[in-house]
């Protein structure tokens, strides 16, 4: 397995030079004036942090940001108090993001999922500052909770800038999808840094924002005999590449030459798995993603390594997905679908498949509750287009929720109370939930039992 080198984030940047003096990122006169207080003391403080960040990573300059930011500052836990306090001061000073922005989903849903005494107590104890973080976002430029989602790029939310746009995003799966499927230019920002950049309207250029930093060190050759399990191959790629950029061949036939609303979920599933099993912030898919369509195999660095994923390798990786339930033989109690958040086409497909399977088996209700994680505006789209189907889904025990599934799975005592199944490799990587492909998951939903050969 490749080990993090620490160099890829500053590839080709000034920090590669050996110098006795600390590196200083060049600044324009306007930027120097901002650092000196021309736009107020709060902006000067933010600039000081931003410049120090750029210096640390050898950025060649600050670049103007376009599109819209995306923030992963979504949870109001006590350890977030200092960061929330910083941005509260910024908001009180009247500063705002350069554009309206999107935010990750809240960590709980008191209406559809956590509407029970145990969970409500945990919310009260664990998220005492949720009101504070939400109020910060209202003032900085993201007031509407209906648009909260880790999949900010779906059409109903619309945070999908043009290829080549410099943005400052956080949330590993959003950064991964944005850089790769949209062709954006952003680094994997830590929570808070993306908001700081959004308020200044600039970001230090280094790493995945540079041409050199977007080159691939790995050629991933997918040779499965049929459509791959996207979560499994994503996990394989993340484990192999860690933080390096992979160039993936053998997948173009599953996309028809372009990314659409109907097939984007495949890249979402694969990409989020690369980011959660490793730290991949960008991948290229030959003939599919913007950079790969333009530059083709010129994106491969000299001396690149090759990793072949065939049927045997896919099954080997799947075999490493251990059963981490506290009671190994317990029957499944809940099904979690949508991490990252579901697209419209995903909830439409799952609603159709589950209700048809239940009807075929002479049942009206699923054997276990099914949680479909998506933004409220995505759910509303389905209600508008297919109201009768939504009615059948509710009768079947399928629930829509706009919360974060990983946050829910991380609640105190979750693993003792919930024996969940999912089709999300990302959720599996971060929790005790067991992973199954869609066809097996559908059978579990209908029967309440895990097939012996699964």
UniProtKB/TrEMBL annotation:
Region feature (Disordered): 1-24
Record has Iron as a keyword: yes
One MF term in the entry's GO annotations: lyase activity
Pfam families, per the entry: AcnX
Keywords: Iron, Lyase
Domain Phosphomevalonate dehydratase large subunit-like: 25-431
Protein name: Phosphomevalonate dehydratase large subunit-like domain-containing protein
Species of provenance: Microbulbifer agarilyticus
